[in-house]
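A brief tutorial aside. Many learners find it easier to grasp structure tokens once they have seen a single protein encoded end to end. The record that follows does exactly this for Chaperone protein HtpG. Read the sequence first, then the structure, and try to relate runs of similar tokens to stretches of the chain.
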Amino acid sequence: MRKFKTESKKLLDLMINSIYTNREIFLRELISNASDAVDKLYFKSLTDKSIELSKDELAIQVSFDKDARTVTVSDSGIGMTKDELDRNLGTIAHSDSMAFKMENDEVQGDDVDIIGQFGVGFYSSFMVGKSVRVVSKAYGSDEAWAWESDGVEGYTIEPAERAEHGTDVIITLKDNTDEDSYDGYLSEYGLKDLVKRYSNYVRYPIRMEVTKSRELPKPEDAGDDYVPQFENYQELDTVNSMIPIWKRRKSEVDQEEYNEFYKTDFHDFADPARTISVHAEGALSYDALLFVPSRAPFDLYSRDYQKGLALYSSNVLIMEKCEELLPDYYNFVHGVVDSQDLQLNISRETLQHNSQLRAIAKKIEKKITSDLEDMRDNDREGYEAFFENFGRGLKYGIYASYGSQKDTLADLLLYYSAKQDKLVTLAEYFEAMPEDQPAIYYAAGDSVERLNKMPIVKTVLGKGYDVLLCTQDVDEFCFTAMRDYGANEDGEGAKELKNVASGDLDFATEDEKKEAEEATKENEDLFKALKDALGNEVTKVAVSARLTDAPACVTTEGPVSLEMERVLSKGPEGPDGVKSQRVLELNAKHPVFDTLKAAHEAGDNDKIRLYADLLYNQALLVEGMPIDDPVAFAQNVAKLM
């Protein structure tokens, strides 16, 4: 027995147990090696005209024997001599494919696509096999040789028989244990599934004996009640697709093909809303095929949802969900990225250096943004449907980035315009603003209908200004993170985003402000009595310069609005968590104010407390906020009646 070169036992044990985390990729690695062997022979035929090959000769075959518990991967590639078997399989981490790739890098072109890099993929077979036998016959040689090892101490090389050039890798599977079963690799379905998942786009046909069904001829003496009979039979069939759809130009693929690929590979029954095809060449070459779904998956906003694009290198699947390729706010995008320029780590399961990946991710993000902008401008109905499904994630992207992503995402947002009675972008709102409008106004609540009826919204509309009606819990947090919108290239001209329910909303003229100040001074004792009646519910009671026909409203001081308080009350801290600083504003021109004055002048403190409670809770209800004691409120209404 020959001993493995290098610190064999330790290194082999490291590779079998540490480098690879998913044992089922052994088939991917062996098929990749087989593809490299076929590629080398094909390349040799391009440079040596004496070699004549037909396309049918260039193939890979996968088979299994249930009784012998073996899985075999065979190729019709260049094969190996005795010395090459010793060098390539006896020296761990020696990559003949990498050497070939470097030697022929300038001349191999697109016709040859060598996958191997590290010379360790073969040893992944020991994760599932208790022994591995490799029978190989080099092209042009009359001799075949067999390399065999149990993956522990060493290996043997002996003469063998093989009719044609190429290599067979025969794995004798480990015995099942209570923890691990290997029987899944001894079935047609199990092996086909692995081929489809990891090696579907290897450029050479991968063939297997598959079970098919056919109808038997109808017997001549069959009666009218004859039921057709079928039989199963075995047939050698190609089980991989070979040509990836993402490497074909968009002009060569119709939308129906894209739709079918999307629905099959990403398990959706509906066609995608958008298809984005990218072919980049240059310092970093890659192909990408991206899909924007037409509906949101049920678990999109759950913790279990996993974003990411399928990452391929030279048509071989590296990661099913590469999260680094998508920002969180585009987590709904499905698709594939394929690049042979990626620097993979030794296991091919993760990336050794991610600078290339970051560069690809940045370009993909720009492409998605550009496509969504095109959809917004040229298919408004489709974009509104898209935004209904995925707009929350775009808003959250601005909030989660503390506003740093607003330049990317702000123009993709849609909000309902109270003035225009439709969804508008921030740019459309900004363009329609009167010249004297000091800010961009919005109101936050649980429905457009209720927000439209708010007194303060009517006040703003009465000034000729529009109000964006925000009905999602993330809206106000998004606007708070954005702070402003509309700056020009010089960073000037931006308008502040302002909640109409904030206490610093200043629409009053100088005369109105003067009237409010005088009313406040004249009724100072009344306001103190109302504040005492409400206690800690409000920070103060004041005259409003913003109300027209409503008797009172509740506004806030500080960074936390009523809507923020409502949203945060649903969090872990519950209703006892973050509280806003509430202000009860009274309309001094409303008849109710005269009633309040009369009660105060009469010294009727019970009535003052009753009125204070009614006005405050009524204002909260108008704002869509819960009241602390609905029963007491109802009793007070009945008492007043």
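Self-check: The mean pLDDT is 85. If you spotted this yourself, you are ready for the next section.
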